[in-house]
Amino acid sequence: MSKRQASSFYPHFAIEERPTIDHFVGLFNRLLFTGQPILTDFLDPRERQIMEAIAGGEALLQSFGGYEEAEKQRLYLSLDWENLRPDDYQLELFEIVYPQKFASLRHSQILGSLANSGVQLATFGDIVTDGQGRWQFFAEKELSNFFESQIDRIGPVKVRLEKKPLKELLEVEDNSQTVSAVAASLRLDAVLAAVTHRSRSQLKTALEAGEVRLNWHKESKAEKILQPGDLLSLRHFGRLRLLSVQPSRKGRLKLECRFWPAKRK
């Protein structure tokens, strides 16, 4: 098992992902040097993919984000297999308590309040709702006291955070749907145009305004070529994952995507 060099992974990922590669190579080399397991912050699927590429099967990676389909998960790196329990991932589940009869909350408000509280985005995980007004989110247990003391308002609404055991996690609302579209190519703007029915000029404006993300990173290049598994998001429209691509009879491409529409409320 040999030490990794970050530069050897650069050609396989986007330029803007190099700081992430540098950080993960450092974690892997630390694991080799000390032999001690490492628990990461919350990572999105793309970050976990990068870490898997760096580990290359020479380290054991296990992840958990509070529930099976969690998007953001903490990754546990070790040299030997360990039979981990949920508690080993050091997660805290918070429910946001507020006067639901007189106020409502939105995902964007909660995300903004957490992101602006003075902690990094990677220190908290998924924000979930039952669709009926109740909201919960996951955070690193090491920072649970900070979140409790600092989050007392979300937007104009006064709130308090209440710790919950994982067994009281809300039944997560899934508003996703499978959609099909026909595109001229796998260029980012062509795929978005096919799914959103927006013009190339409208999408160019959105790209220039930083409203498009590819695999959780801002993307401004309309000519970027997509591949199955990629996740695209457009502000105020929603997110879509490209599941499969099949040629059509007329030389175009039939796309199948998983689509999560943006919340309208």
C-alpha geometry: globular
What is the element string, with H for helices and E for strands? HEHEEEHEEHEEEEHHEEEEE
- Counting DSSP E segments of at least 2 residues, the number of strands comes to 15
The whole-number mean of residue pLDDT values reads: 92
Rg (CA only): 20 Å
State which percent range the strand residues make up. Answer: 25-35%
Q: CA-to-CA gap between the ends?
A: 52 Å
Question: Which residues form runs of ≥5 with pLDDT under 50?
Answer: none
Q: How helix-rich are the residues, as a percent range?
A: 10-25%
Pairing-aware structural class of the strands and helices? alpha+beta
For the sheet with most strands, the description reads: 6 strands, antiparallel
Overview of the molecule:
The chain is an alpha+beta fold and 265 residues long. 23% of the residues lie in helices and 30% in strands. The strands form 4 sheets. Strands 10-15-14-13-11-12 form a 6-stranded antiparallel beta sheet. It has a 4-stranded antiparallel beta sheet with strand order 5-6-4-9, covered by helices on one side. A hairpin with an 8-residue loop joins strand 2 (60-64) and strand 3. The radius of gyration is 20 Å and the shape is globular. The protein starts with 17 loop residues before the first helix and ends with a strand. The model has no long low-confidence stretch (mean pLDDT 92).
